[in-house]
Amino acid sequence: MYKYGLFRQAASNLAGVFGKSRAQRRLNRDRIRYYGLIDTVGQNMIPRQKYPTKIPLAFCFNARGARMAAVTMRSILDASAGRCDYDIYCVIDTDVDKTICDMMRNTIKPHKSSIHFVHGNHDFDESPRRKWPIAMWYRLMLPKLLPNVSRIIYADMDMIFFNDLIDIYEYDLGKNVIAAVPTRTSKYINSGFLLMDLDKIRKEKIYEQWIKASRENDFYNPDQDVLNYTLKGRIAFLPLKYNFQISHGSRIFKIYPKNELDDLKHNLVCLHYSDYVKPWSDGIRPVFSEYWWDVARRTGLFKE
User: Fold this and answer.
1) CA dist list (Å): 106 to 87, 296, 299
2) Is the pLDDT confidence value at 253 over 90?
3) pTM listed for this prediction
4) Domains in the chain: how many in total?
């Protein structure tokens, strides 16, 4: 248990009694839970020579999520300026039209990264997805949709980045197939941020295992559970700074060691707005929403 975990938990629970809505009560709790965890993020990067090649990076979305994905994309590009560029692959639904694609291209114009649009396939059409759109399955299609890409980083559309992704792209997976941040328990990962060895997935026919598992099981968190179920023992666990989820609640102090929590203060890479309320929601917004809006304003796609 983190040194102040018990105190924070007690204080946040008390704060959560007050508030007219669930969102307000959650915000009251999180302001205390996470107070001081983030400070000078993105300001202490050691200067380095620019990375020699573009790093493959993937987003998956439908028309409804396009603007949010553009904000996440812009945050990575701004945080990586002068350090590296990206080959950005957008796996899109059929409702993403030319106007949306042009909007995404304009988002990256200040940078030298490239953007490519690929339509999702129909391999997971028969797989249960509960409340999520079909685009939820698109991240699992990457090995098939991008046959010439060896490894790739995938990111959800409700994230903000404060540092470049050079270190994680060069991460040695060893015998593992993917790398991700554990959540809930020490062996269960969140699928919002992934390093994927696409060559290994294709060679070992893991893609076919994903399709089979997705159709035979009605998982609670479909794509995430498929990864955890099929890749048990083949997942490398990343530090919390690569996927800090605001939905963790007080269990964050139970799951993660003190050094990983301390690392958030100055070295946070990815902030994940994984709760049911988002920074762009009307009314009450989650803790740390100001970071998202700092980037959103630069895109010109959102007005408060």
Assistant:
1) 15, 14, 9
2) no
3) 0.93
4) 1
